[in-house]
Amino acid sequence: MLAGLAASIGGCRQDVQFTKPPVVGGAHEEGRTRASTLFLGLRLDQDALATAIVDALPDDTIRVSGVVRGSDCRSSARGSCRSAGVRGVLRRAGAPVLKAADDRLLVDIPFDYDLKAGTFGRRQRATDDTSGRIVVTAGFKVSLGPDFEVEVERVEPIATSAETVTLLGAGFALGRALDPQLSRSLKEAGEALQRHLSALPLRDVAARGWRRLHAPVALGASGLWMRAEPLSIASGGFRAERGQLFYRLAVAARIAPVVGERPVPLFVTPLPEASLKPAEPLVTQLELSYRVPMSRMVEAVRAALPAGTTLPLGAGGTKGQLKARRVAVYPSQNRIAIELRADVDTAEGWLGMKGLVHLLGRPHVEPGKRTLRLTNVQFAPTRASPAVFRNGRFILADVPLAARLGEGVKLQLDPQLSQFVARTLDGLDHDQDGGLRVTGAFGDWRVESVLPSRKELRIALVLSGALMLRETGPITQSGRVVPSSALDIRRTR
To answer: Rg of the Cα trace of the chain?
Structure first.
């Protein structure tokens, strides 16, 4: 009879709530308007601009001279050589190439060089000569006055495709020797660029573009719009795209996506004066939402911690085990709450416990990866009941639940996530209202945040790339396009 009573008592468990239940409910979705820079651009006549710059460059022989010191002269005689005199000539080896690099216009000028060096040791003269090709790159920056007047500034010093040319075992800085020889010519090239840009209708293009930016822009997917609120305007440098070169006006704006019907255009504000410097950041960011059913997160948690899992105790020397019976998952503000119904047995106690254990983890997607995991997993605040403490410590403190969930919860987002981005922004080559055409693409994207709700996880994607809105100018009989205005939207990272 006593044996049966003991068995009956041993099968009973004390109901205990080990932790306080977290707040139920998803986090409030953050606003998705982002500070960005948009570019109003003018297509440049590259042939005319290149001709103007070429005419400013010397087409005859350029002579250079200099000294290399501390060279390791290749001399078989005794003695050392402390310096070497360098003489040589350079000849232009082809037409300059114009390139755009953020806010600068770069001009690549190829030169063929023939150099000779002569050094004198105490007993013997050593000589050396070399020849080859070097590319000199000169840069120009453009700033605007309040009334959109253009000022071009040369970026000094010049850059070269090779830092040094080796003569007599020493490095001769050819670019440094060439810079003063080209200084006057490059100044004249900057003046030619300034005259070319000053002849463009910058204020007219700025006014039309500023007004057009208050209307929504249709993106690739049906029902996806971009709405911009322009704030200020400044010089935005140059951009090359599809074999064409553009000068740009940088418009600081707040940008937000709108899904559904075409949004109502914003009230058009007056065109402001041009700022001396563009506003920061010089990037275009567009945030979209990708939604994952909450059921997928539940499946990932249950796969990492299936019912029946047994884990050891250990807090304060307590021996025993925890056995998971049922696992539930729900949102708690910006975190994921995991509710575990568990049985806990200790070696010291003859009466077991059962109850709810709660943990909290933050959903996170690592940069460059497409897998959602839980980070900062920890127990929810504990109850004050003496039953859940041993020797002053929470009885489950050493149970490896957090580590099990942090390492085991893996929700693979691809290929669905990448396909979503591709579908959303595919086919951007189409006409807009007002005679504009949008081309380009957003080529880069990252996951910025993950916010849970009862039904789904909202993943905020920040997209970046190049998007251009342009007016197509008339075609001449020769087939060349007359320069016209364009709107170039670009994020630089």
So the answer is: 35
Q: Can you spell out the DSSP letters for 166-199?
A: EETTEEE-HHHHHHHHHHHHHHHHHHHHHHHHHT
Q: Which residues of the chain have pLDDT under 70?
A: 1-11, 25-32, 59-60, 70-82, 119-126, 220-222, 281, 315-318, 348-351, 383-384, 425-429, 433-436, 439-441, 466, 471-493
In the structure encoding, which two tokens stand for residue 249, read together? 């006006």
Tell me the per-residue pLDDT of 271-287, one tens digit each, with 9 for 90 and over.
999 998 887 767 778 88
CA nearest to 271, candidates 355, 146, 176: 146
Q: What's the pLDDT score for residue 150?
A: 92
Task: Burial-class residue 88 by CB neighbours within 10 Å (0-12, 13-18, 19+).
Answer: buried
Cβ-based neighbour number of residue 372 at 10 Å: 23
Q: What was the pLDDT predicted at 82?
A: 62
* pTM, two decimal places: 0.72
- Give one word for 406, left, alpha or beta, with left for phi > 0 and alpha for psi -120 to 50: alpha
As a 3-state breakdown, the chain gives helix, strand, coil percent values, each rounded to 5, of 20, 50, 35
Tell me phi and psi for residue 335, to 5 degrees: -125, 170
Q: How far apart are CA 284 and CA 489, in angstroms?
A: 7
Measured distance CA(345)–CA(323) in Å, rounded: 9
Calpha distance 115→123 (Å, rounded) = 24
End-to-end alpha carbon distance in the chain: 79
Give 218-231 as a DSSP string: E-SSTTEEEEEEEE
pLDDT, one tens digit per residue, over 104-150 is 899 998 889 999 988 655 554 667 889 999 998 999 999 999 999 99
**Do 358 and 342 contact (CB within 8 A), yes or no?**
no
Phi and psi for 185 in degrees, rounded to 5? -65, -40
